[in-house]
Amino acid sequence: LGEQVPDNDAEADGLCRIIDSAGDADLLAQAVRRNTERLGPLWGRLAQLRFAGPPGSRPSADQRAALIGAVRELLPQGAPDQPGEGLTAADWRALRQGGSAWLATASLKALPVPAPADEPLIEALADATHRQGLFTVWSGYTAQDIKSEDRLRRPNDIRVARRSGRLLHALVRARQARRVLEIGSGFGVSGMYLNAALARLPQGRLKTFEANADWQPIAAANIAVTGPLPESVAGPFTPTSLAADERFDLVFIDAIHTPAAVQEQLDAVHPHLDPGALVVVDDVRFSPEMLDHWRGEAKSARWAASFELFGRFGILEVA
Q1: Distance between CA atoms of 297 and 265, rounded to whole angstroms?
Q2: pLDDT for 99-140, tens place per residue?
Q3: Backbone angles phi, psi at 207, to 5 degrees
């Protein structure tokens, strides 16, 4: 980065603070290379917008709009996705492979996982959200559910990792999954990656549930920036949350990581999925009990194929 950033103390300081928060120098280096001639004023605006208030402060609507505008200026219109890390043999483990399943036909192993063109915007919003400080977890969680007596979390404590977000984005693109269901919006990071992919598909639409009434509006506002206006539902997902005629091409489950809760969610969504649809379950190694449950469910005949990815994600394809 030092070879490409102008020799200006103020700009360098602002850029370093952004890198420190984003944690991804390669991503920012790509943005720098694409926008060197406009680097100074944009990085200056970003640094001011993102760090003007103390941690825990809530940005105003004007500050939020200015932040989004600054990042949008940085990103060229219609910019392509940027090369990212592909999957390696160490990333995935097959648990069930049906002969004709998409997951079993080398499609997953060869899946490109690029950095979405909107990733700088997603990560800027994730960082701005994280700067708002501590939030209380949903009252419906027990200490056993969250493996802690501490009921306070900062947004980045519960977000998907950047690489996981890229995978969700890639799965939507590869499967042309126009109808996506998310159970557990959190603060909207996974939803932003999903919605950025849906923005490139005709009539792409995200429906997302968040039980925490404080988190849900933040997630909905973040997700709406990267694509179509999501259907963001405030309240926990239950077996009666979906209308009988609703269909989905991809489901992401990232709420309560207990065997009983995940089983209930899988049973509730399965009737709304056609053969070939994908279900991604986060944190399958959350606890020994959760891992045992996942390994058993992954071998069920209702799934044509099942894989583990990154030692964290479980991916199922409907038979």
Answers
A1: 12
A2: 678 887 766 777 888 889 888 888 888 887 887 889 999 999
A3: -115, 125
What's the token pair of residue 159? 């977000």
Mean residue pLDDT of the chain comes to: 80
Closest to 85 in 3D by CA, of 112, 123, 118: 112
Is pLDDT above 50 for 301? yes
* Of residues 193 and 38, more confidently modeled: 193
pTM of the model: 0.79
